[in-house]
């Protein structure tokens, strides 16, 4: 792991950072034009850069201790550098030429557990470009360019949840977002509550293929219901006339949108119940949970200081998020992880760090 000066022999021209996120409610709703409610986590990705001589951009990842290089129109092989490449390409398309750069990336956002390390990297890269070249990119446009980078250059057909969360959130608040209109409100966390995040220790193996499968099922369900997207289903009973699996997929999306809409202003107790219902729906109707996540969510939900808990992100492994009584989060985290380990599982508390 090298510093910018060790790797490039000079000081950076600018440094920017962006956080990872958890999603408190509104899972698998963003690509259905629905509602989401994420919060940021303390862990951040930092991107330092300076203008380089010549035409080759070099990206160094301190965590991976790996270097990649690329020129315009020639994407790098390494996945970590594709996110950076994608951000530069999207900036180029939007605001014009970007010179060659030396770029240093370091991050304490855990990778591969569903906390949006890729969105944090994209948003930090775009913020650094914005600072360095004084670009007219406001925060929503940063999120949109970051999403385009991920879809068109990193090959992940994601919604806009992760990038909007990383670009718009500060610690201690949550973002109520309509992903169709991008209308949004920053809200405080429910009174007297804090966020606890625990990694299940199981990597998200099927996430990409199953994610695309669920997207396709939702599109088919919307087609069968005669609506542009599942966001447009007003009557929850309408989905019951579909055959499976479309009925259950649509039921999750429609009920999850209703849960997000009823969350603003809810007490910690009521909010926690919405999270528990969200996990059940993700497990039973949307079928994106796995045994380890169900076990971890149940342990969290059973803890005396926890208001509610669910898996966070796409599912198929990764982490659970819980809403906890303020001031008791480290203790609740230790208690739950001890029980989880006692049943032979590996895992760790990620927030509080
Ligand atoms: C991943 C995607 C998001 C969203 C979630 C599920 O994190 O990147 O766009 O679809 O899964 O809520």
Structure, explained:
This protein has 353 residues and is α+β, with helices and mostly antiparallel strands. It folds into two domains: 4-188, Ribosomal Protein S5, domain 2, CATH 3.30.230.10; 193-351, Alpha-Beta Plaits. It has ten helices and eleven strands. Strands 1, 2, 3, 4, 5, 6 and 7 form a seven-stranded mixed β-sheet that branches. A four-stranded antiparallel β-sheet has the order 9-10-8-11. The two termini are 21 Å apart. It binds alpha-D-galactopyranose (GLA). Alpha-D-galactopyranose (GLA) is lined by residues 23, 27-28, 30-31, 158-159, 161-162, 313-314.
CATH architecture name of the largest domain: 2-Layer Sandwich
Number-wise, the strands total 11
User: How far do the termini sit from each other?
Assistant: 21 Å
Q: Which parts are unreliable, with pLDDT below 50 for 5 consecutive residues or more?
A: none
Radius of gyration, CA atoms, in whole angstroms: 20 Å
Query: Could you say which structural class the secondary elements and strand pairing correspond to?
Result: alpha+beta
Quick one: biggest sheet? 7 strands, mixed
Instruction: Give every kind of bound small molecule, once each.
Output: alpha-D-galactopyranose
CATH topology of the largest domain: Ribosomal Protein S5, domain 2
């Amino acid at each position: 792991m090298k510093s910018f000066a060790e790797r490039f022999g000079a000081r950076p021209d600018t440094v920017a950072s962006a956080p990872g996120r958890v999603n408190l409610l509104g899972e698998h709703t963003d690509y259905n034009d629905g509602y989401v409610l994420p919060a940021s986590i303390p862990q951040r990705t930092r991107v330092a850069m300076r203008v380089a001589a010549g035409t080759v951009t070099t990206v160094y990842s301190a965590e991976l201790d790996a270097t990649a290089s690329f020129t315009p129109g020639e994407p790098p092989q390494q996945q970590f550098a594709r996110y950076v490449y994608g951000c530069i390409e999207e900036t180029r398309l939007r605001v014009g030429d970007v010179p060659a750069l030396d770029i240093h990336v370091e991050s304490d956002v855990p990778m591969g557990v569903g906390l949006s390390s890729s969105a944090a990297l994209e948003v930090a890269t775009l913020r650094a470009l914005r600072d360095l070249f004084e670009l007219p990119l406001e925060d929503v446009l940063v999120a949109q360019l970051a999403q385009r980078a991920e879809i068109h250059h990193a090959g992940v057909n994601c919604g806009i949840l992760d990038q909007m969360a990383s670009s718009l959130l500060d610690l201690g608040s949550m973002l109520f977002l309509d992903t169709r209109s991008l209308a949004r409100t920053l809200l405080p966390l429910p009174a007297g509550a804090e966020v606890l995040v625990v990694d299940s220790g199981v990597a998200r193996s099927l996430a990409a293929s199953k994610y695309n499968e669920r997207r396709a099922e939702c599109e088919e369900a919307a087609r069968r219901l005669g609506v542009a997207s599942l966001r447009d289903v007003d009557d929850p009973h309408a989905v019951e006339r579909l055959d499976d699996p479309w009925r259950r997929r649509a039921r999750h999306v429609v009920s999850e949108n209703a849960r997000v809409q009823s969350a603003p202003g809810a007490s910690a107790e009521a909010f926690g119940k919405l999270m528990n219902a969200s996990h059940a729906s993700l497990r039973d109707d949307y079928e994106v949970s796995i045994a380890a996540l169900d076990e971890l969510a149940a342990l969290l939900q059973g803890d005396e200081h926890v208001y509610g808990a669910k898996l966070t992100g796409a599912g198929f492994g990764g982490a659970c998020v819980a809403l906890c009584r303020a001031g008791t989060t480290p203790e609740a985290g230790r208690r739950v992880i001890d029980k989880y380990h006692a049943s032979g599982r590996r895992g760790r508390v990620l927030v509080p760090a």
